Amino acid sequence: MTQQYAGLLDRIKAYTIDMILIIVLMYFFSEVTASFTEVPNYVRIILFSILFVFYDPLFVSISGGTVGHTFMDISVRQEVNSSKKISFPSALFRFIVKFLLGWLSFITIGSKKKKAIHDKAVGSVVIKLSIKK
What is the pLDDT of residues 103-114, one digit of tens each? Predict the structure, then answer.
């Protein structure tokens, strides 16, 4: 069976699910910190920064994808060996490039392996885990 790569629509849907989840988690953290009498602002900033910066790289390096990727049945893998996940440093660099370039990063997805700029930067591909007939 040939490897199928995730298209732009699947990736945008996964990204949207992840952004909604991050907003919900930020609200949850906000409510939890509000329940304490005095929480310094730097603690809130650290919590939100950790959530925003490390959500994508941790999930991608540990499980091969974020919650959005799981819902869309896609996974981020090494280009040279699609059975292996990418490392945490690679996932972090991939996230930084994706964050800095924003939607511009997705312009190159039309290639054969449907790689975005952030995938090219670290040698990753986004594959479909199951083929729907």
Answer: 888 887 877 888
